[in-house]
Each structure stands twice: as structure tokens, then as C-alpha cells.
Write a structure and sequence with these properties.
By secondary structure, the chain is an alpha/beta fold. The protein is built from 9 helices and 18 strands. It has helices at 44-50, 128-131, 134-148, 165-176, 188-197, 225-230, 254-259, 272-285, 300-309; strands at residues 2-6, 18-22, 32-41, 62-63, 69-71, 77-80, 83-84, 98-99, 111-115, 119-121, 156-159, 180-184, 201-203, 213-218, 232-240, 263-266, 291-296, 315-319. Strands 3, 5, 6, 9, 10, 17 and 18 form a 7-stranded mixed beta sheet that branches. The protein has a 6-stranded parallel beta sheet with strand order 13-12-11-14-15-16. The radius of gyration is 19 Å and the shape is globular.
């Protein structure tokens, strides 16, 4: 079957390790289901895999892709929860939790095999392309906002790095939940787009906000860390789920953190129950993932290049 896969690890030029071509189709396995992939979306996790983060050389070649929506062996339209081993279903209790492409082949292929427990019904109102955007970036934003940030309708939130998949999702979700959302981006067009999606205002990175916020959602890392900490009200919460600009800020702001009793919360992906709630939230509110581009699978390299350059707003989706 045709697939986009990591053939080698290149830490400096990760896309050099990307190959497009034939890979073995999944074989039947007790407790697992084979899904015919209709749509799959890119995440920065895929670039990190090509850099060798979360994977070792002995697991290559590895089909990339965490997210997908498709049709299972019984003809059901499904969405894949991409955290494998969260409960032991399909792998046993001793296998540690992992994300697709770390231990198991991913979704950038004609078919993918996952534990049957990891399948959720796709809501009829969501297209395959929209549903494929939800299990990683949108689920991450959902958990950051509603589980870990501790915010409620009416609270204020700063989202760093508008344009990325998680940040874009957080803006849309926060607005739909009745929060005052501020956003930042280096790009004027992305700031304008963030406001169109529901942000109250959008600023250049490091700009002073009209007020200190109840929570900051951080995926950028080192480049925005100091601004994130300084933007919080006393007792506020900073939730971090990524560090695309690096994980070693020049100033950790430790004095401010302890003096203002700020909370720093790490957040990774989300649970199957949270994905089910996210699917329901999209259905009942009518919100939909922001899609930057839909490309056929054989143009996956183009999608990787756009994501690596930051030349996108929302998700890039690959289809068969």
C-alpha cells in the first residue's frame, strides 16, 4: 500500500528522512481493527519523529501520522484515538503509553491498524477531513483549556503562536466556551485571522496585554516563555504542551512564579473520553477545525515543508 514514512532520522534536515512509496499492509491481529484511511492530518509530532524524537533507528521504517478518520472493517465511519496503550487494550498492561508512530505504524497510508478500543464513531455532521484534525492538535487544546487550565466561561486566556494547529484550536474552543481570548503571532495576517476566528485581540509576541489573564496556553516554548509568565494574574495558570522554539528559555522567571503563586501545568494529548467530548462539543456548537489545505497523500512532502516553515494557518490534511 502507498504510504508516507520515515526512512531515516535527520536531526538537522528532518524532511530528508521522509519517503513516499509502498509499505506492507497491516496484518490481522486479535483485538485490533484495520481502518481504511479517508483523511489524516499533519502534526509537529511528525517532524519530531523525523528528527528522532520519541523513536529509535531500529523502529524504522515507520509510517508517519497520528490522526485519521476512515472506515473500519464493518463499514463504520470512525475517528482514531491515537494514544495506544492508555488502558492496556490491545497491547497488554505492561506496554507503556505511546502515540502512533512511536511504537506502531501511523496513519499516512491507505490503511492503519489500531486497537479496536481506540475507535470512536465519526459524527455525521463532520467530514472525514474535519474529523481527522481532532485527535491530536484539537484534543491537546481541549485538554489544555478545559481540563488543565482551570478556566470557566468569562475568564481570560492568552494563546501564544496563533496559526499552529493547537493554538488555532484553542482560540476557536475558547471563544465557543465564552472566554475572552487573546492571541499572539509574528505575522500580521495571522493576527487578523485569529481575530476573525474569535480572539478578542491579537498582538505581536511580547506585547503588553490589556489585562493580565487567568491562563496562558503555551506551545511555542523558549521564545514566548517570559511573556507568558508575565502575562498571568496572581494565581494564574500556564499550561504548556509543546516547545517548537526550544525548551530552554533564557529567563525562567522563577521569582515571579513563586512570588505570584503561579501554576505551571504540563499537558500531553488527551484521553479517549475527552476526544468523545470534543466530538460532541463540535457537533452541538457547530464549530469546525480550521483547515489550511487539503492535499493528496502523494503530495505529503509539500505539506511537511509548509508545516516546517510555519507557512500555514490551521491544519494540513492528507487524503487518498
Amino acid at each position: 500500500m502507498f504510504a508516507a514514512y520515515a526512512a531515516r532520522i535527520d536531526r538537522d534536515q528532518p524532511i530528508n528522512g521522509l519517503e513516499l512509496g509502498d509499505r506492507p499492509a497491516p496484518e490481522p491481529r486479535p483485538g485490533w481493527s484495520t481502518v481504511t484511511v479517508k483523511a489524516a492530518s499533519l502534526n509537529h509530532h511528525d517532524l519530531w519523529t523525523l528528527r528522532g524524537v520519541g523513536i529509535t533507528e531500529d523502529r524504522l521504517p515507520m509510517i508517519l501520522g497520528c490522526d485519521a478518520a476512515g472506515i473500519d472493517e464493518e463499514g463504520n465511519e470512525v475517528v482514531i484515538h491515537s494514544v495506544i496503550g492508555q488502558t492496556g487494550h490491545g497491547v497488554g498492561p505492561r506496554e507503556p503509553r505511546s502515540i502512533l508512530t512511536e511504537r506502531h505504524q501511523g496513519t499516512f497510508a491507505e490503511q492503519v491498524s489500531v486497537p479496536t478500543w481506540n475507535l470512536l464513531p465519526k459524527p455525521a455532521g463532520l467530514s472525514f477531513e474535519e474529523a481527522a484534525c481532532l485527535p491530536t492538535a484539537w484534543l491537546t487544546a481541549y485538554r489544555m483549556l478545559f481540563t488543565n487550565a482551570g478556566v470557566r466561561p468569562g475568564d481570560s486566556v492568552l494563546v501564544q503562536g496563533a496559526g499552529g494547529g493547537v493554538a488555532t484550536a484553542a482560540i476557536v474552543l475558547g471563544k465557543a466556551a465564552g472566554m475572552r481570548v487573546y492571541a499572539t503571532s509574528r505575522d500580521e495576517a495571522k493576527r487578523k485571522r485569529a481575530v476573525e476566528l474569535g480572539a478578542t485581540e491579537a498582538f505581536e509576541p511580547g506585547a503588553r496585554l490589556p489585562q493580565r489573564v487567568d491562563a496562558v496556553l503555551e506551545t511555542v516554548g523558549a521564545a514566548t516563555w517570559s511573556h507568558s509568565v508575565k502575562s498571568l494574574r496572581p494565581g494564574g495558570t500556564l499550561v504548556i504542551s509543546g516547545a517548537t522554539s526550544g525548551d530552554r528559555p533564557s529567563h525562567a522567571e522563577l521569582t515571579r512564579i513563586f512570588f505570584l503563586e503561579l501554576r505551571i501545568v504540563g499537558s500531553t494529548m488527551g484521553t479517549k473520553d475527552e476526544l468523545e467530548d470534543l466530538l460532541s462539543f463540535c457537533t452541538t456548537t457547530g464549530i469546525r477545525p480550521v483547515i489550511d489545505a487539503v492535499l493528496p497523500l502523494d503530495r505529503a512532502r509539500e505539506g511537511f515543508e509548509r508545516m516546517s516553515a510555519g507557512d500555514l494557518f490551521g491544519k494540513i490534511v492528507l487524503t487518498r
